[in-house]
Amino acid sequence: MSGRRALNRTQTQPSNRGGPARGRRRPTGVPVLPDVYQEMLRESGVGASVAGKKRRKVENGGDEVIDTAWPTALEPAVASSSKPVQLQREKPWEKPELVEEADEELDDSDDDDNEVDWEDVDLTTVLEPESGVLEVTLNSPGEMKRPTLERRKITVVDQKIRLEVHKLHLLCLMVHVSRRNKWCNNKQVQENLRRRFKDDTLISNLNPAPQLYQLERNTRFLRGLTEVKNLWRRKFWITRRGLARPFWLDTVDLSKSQRDDGDPPMSKGDFLDASQSLTGSRDLGAQLFCALLRSLGVTARLICSLQPMPFSFAQKGTTQSLSRSTSKKEESVSPLPSAASRAPLKEPFASPVLPQYDPRIPAAQREVLASLRPASCTTVQSPSRTPHVPARGTIMIKNESQYPVYWIEAWNVATQGWVPVDPLVLNKVGCASRFEPPQSDLNNVMSYVAAFEEEGHVKDVTRRYANNYNAKTRKLRLNATKGGELWWLNLLRLFERGWDLDRDQVEDSELASKELGEGIPSSVADLKDHPLFALKRHLRRNQVIYPERPVGSVTTGIGSKAVIETVYRRQDVKTVRSPMQWYRLGREIKTGEQPLKHITVRKRKRHGEAGEEDDESGETGLYAIFQTEEYIPPPVADGMVPKNSFGNIDIYVPSMVPKGGIHVPHKDAVRAAKIIGIDFAEAVTAFEHKGRQASAVIKGVVIAEQYQAALYAVLGAIISEKKEEDAEKKSLENMRLWKRFLLGLRIRERIENEYGDVKEGESLGGWGRKRQSIIEADKGKGKASQLWRKSAEAEGLLDLEQNQEAGGFMREDKPEVRREPISLRSLAKGDGENDAGGFLPEDIAGVDETGGFLPGDTDCDAGFMPEGPGIDDSGVKSDDDESMLSADPDMDNEDLDWF
DNA sequence: CTGTGATACTATTCTTTGAGGTTA
DNA sequence: TTAACCTCTTTGAATAGTATCACA
């Protein structure tokens, strides 16, 4: 473990980053991300943690991440300042890193901040020997070249990465669509469109007079929508691919690939141009159609079925399955007819030879492309039926999904409902249920459908379009992951209106009822984790169905093994616990309750009973929460606190404090209670497990209420006494170090006087540089000094410094002057329990805000005190070493191996 | 094509009140 | 002499979750 960590850290050092021979366990045969890529990513101005994550995503197939959402989403300003995008477009094939590679780096993502700190301190000499560690895990170049299809090992980190990428991609897509939606409101864009589609009948149909009957208004509105849809279909030319579902790639060699066209990054100006030329991807077509409707007075939403990178590892859509199906298709499908022959148009607009897209890409290339690019270059043909005739005036881009990614919803005032309109792909007005692509459509997966209103607000309308939202669609969404739903809702919150319009409420209830009306799924897989229904077979060990109210049945098994299983309601699935588990939650079983379930538990061999059988098992009854009530502990009587068999008291939850008693969760409360001589019981609040051994976590004591004031008084005295002692101790220690330090300086001075100038950094080993800094700091010049002054000022230590300058250096000279600021400070900071006086190395290890005075303080590059390692072989406590290195509180001892 | 069940593998959960030596 | 502190160790087994494959 430590070895691996050591490697990780080394890899993230700039010196090793991106080297040609990085350790990896799986061959890739692809070049590694160049240094400049990493650096530019880091420079891109995002915070450390964000940057860290982003970098990893990029390494791990980041091409997809960025490309799908960003290029189309970025305005020129953004695009030009966003280096990842630029880079990506320059050399998109240069980073096919493996997931595992990225994993290893993810491990130390938490340490990024600290690494910066470490680099401030000059530790390079210490690091150098470590670079040899790299060689240990290197594979031979030959091995790297060989593409493997061996079974992937999926680690937790892999999964986390996918999940994070999924989220990031979602975020990008949302911002992207949001931006396009904003452009749809552009006056010039709308004017361009309106000019070409201005038609009084049309406009009056789309905005039927309110005095008409509802039916009539509805009819006219729908007629108007159909007309404008048809018009648009005739006039808009699809010349490019639009957004499509992206894929993860794992083992495909990308070095031979080349970029396909696709919806390019687009500026507002380009958007404006497109509103003139009426050409572009079908996505662009839908966006402009939205602008058109808005310009004609219709309340229109831009709808996008977001296509984020999937977070699951399911085979469908992975490279393997893709290339397999691709190659299969490749044989049977002869080169497709050119767009021209396919759409023989006699319209005046007909010029369907598309310079941007050559349908006759060689098969080999196509396969690579299929796995390379998310949307724009997948050449897998959708195996679904092809019911949709290419629009007149539009051209079907080969192998694009038969279902739209973008479309429009128009608000029908007459019926108070949103009407979906897709002019270019489905050619439909209404029929929300027809917008969901079949599961076999590899280029289009419906998981999140977001509706962007004119003002920029967003609604999740997936349930309107997904026909099996609970059974299937949910599982593709963050809803299926832990905490994921919350994340998605949080994201949506950024785009919410903040208050509901009437039409929102109507829509909400419509969506809710659609979800409820979904019915019972017919397959076992769909019933798993279904929010409304449950099967007994999927129950966990600590779950029961109670009461058992069958709501349906499903046939499972095949052929003769078919069995009918009963379907229950999810709300009847209850979590059950043993009496002991309930007790730990502060509840006990009501009298007379019978367990809902029995499970067998293996009884452990207890300590000291060696030789006895340890596989003896017993049955435990489990109870649901409604069978329990709050545990009421026996009250404190006559100042005596009730105790358990261990002589302490269980306080797992606050309600377990007995009546008449009070919990004082302070470490020194025991001592205080003993001093007063009152009865008390130590409070057990949890357990911690070391190996097989569980030991109680004791937090303070429980005493009788009437002694509270007395106890606190004594406690206060103890605390302040302790603080003083601490301060004294720390002060002494500090003095000792100062003395030592000064002694060193004097020796140095003497040597110089007697033997002439000593060259910096030579005869004094590590001392030279530090000493120089110190001298500079002392003089009040130099960067280090400024740094130090700054931190000293922040810590209120300048008084101390002045005292020193006044000559009171040694403790025996002016002990009282030194002591006061230290004590004050440590007292002010202390919180009672683990107060950090902030002067000694051990404090630095644990507390961030400690003052900058001693070795190991990363704020003070000047190295104000003698450095521990290498210099100090006697005086400084030996664990100084460790304290310094452990400036990061999260860093465990394993990290020390790194040094 | 899709769903199912078997299999292989990994991750997570469950457990839930020391002993022995050293130091101050 | 005693109390406080430190170190030692590490244990599976059951369960849950995921991917993959063959097959109906």
Automatic annotation (TrEMBL):
The protein's UniProt keywords, in alphabetical order, are:
DNA damage, DNA repair, Nucleus
This entry carries the following GO cellular component terms, namely: cytoplasm; nucleotide-excision repair factor 2 complex; XPC complex
Return the Acidic residues bias intervals: 99-116, 879-899
Source organism (scientific name)? Terfezia boudieri ATCC MYA-4762
- Give the residue ranges for region: Disordered: 1-116, 317-343, 842-899
Residue ranges constituting the Rad4 beta-hairpin domain according to the UniProt record: 516-574, 576-634, 641-715
Among InterPro entries, the record links this protein to: BHD_2, DNA_repair_Rad4, Papain-like_cys_pep_sf, Rad4/PNGase_transGLS-fold, Rad4_beta-hairpin_dom1, Rad4_beta-hairpin_dom3, Rad4_BHD3_sf, Transglutaminase-like_sf
Q: What is this protein called?
A: Rad4-domain-containing protein
Q: Where is the composition biased (Basic and acidic residues)?
A: 88-98
Keyword Nucleus (UniProt): yes
Family statement: Belongs to the XPC family.
The record's listing under SMART domains reads: BHD_1, BHD_2, BHD_3
SUPFAM superfamilies per UniProt: Cysteine proteinases
* Main localization (coarse): nucleus
One of this protein's Pfam families, by short name?
Rad4
Q: Name one GO molecular function term.
A: damaged DNA binding
Q: Which cellular compartments is it found in? A: Nucleus
Q: Which domain of life is it from?
A: Eukaryota
GO process terms (BP): mismatch repair; nucleotide-excision repair
